[in-house]
Write a structure and sequence with these properties.
mainly alpha, 7 helices, 0% strand, globular
């Protein structure tokens, strides 16, 4: 019996979310200006923005890397790590949506990225019971 691409993708969603988060985190740690250009625009090179990007990066490495490792070695931790990711992404989506005077490009990109990870995390969580 062969498994379709869609079925494999859904089954591996926790791994994909974990690797995606970790990759975003690594990018923000090693190249904060470049990684943050979409959200911060010309302010991506400002020292405070770079520092904030790095704090964001370590959070993503911790949650994403932990989630990926849990899929391999500690399956009981997958759900709590998925939910931790969803919680911070809901917060991030709200922050991008509600922060006053945020450039429209930043607002839309931030909501799309964070909101996308909310959806992916929830779908991955729901699929764990199947």
């Amino acid at each position: 019996m062969t498994m379709s691409f869609g079925t494999t993708l859904v089954r591996r969603l926790p791994e994909i979310v974990g690797l995606g988060r970790a990759a975003i985190g690594v990018a923000h740690m090693i190249a904060p200006t470049r990684a943050n250009e979409l959200l911060a625009g010309p302010d991506a090179a400002v020292a405070t923005t770079r520092a904030a990007a790095r704090t964001f990066g370590i959070r993503e490495i911790y949650i994403g890397g932990g989630l990926y490792a849990a899929t391999k070695y500690a399956p009981t931790l997958v759900r709590p790590l998925l939910r931790a990711g969803v919680a911070v992404d809901v917060w991030d989506t709200g922050a991008f949506a509600l922060t006053a005077y945020l450039p429209q490009r930043t607002r839309v990109a931030g909501c799309a990225v964070a909101g996308g990870f909310v959806v992916a995390g929830v779908l991955a969580d729901l699929r764990l019971d199947r």
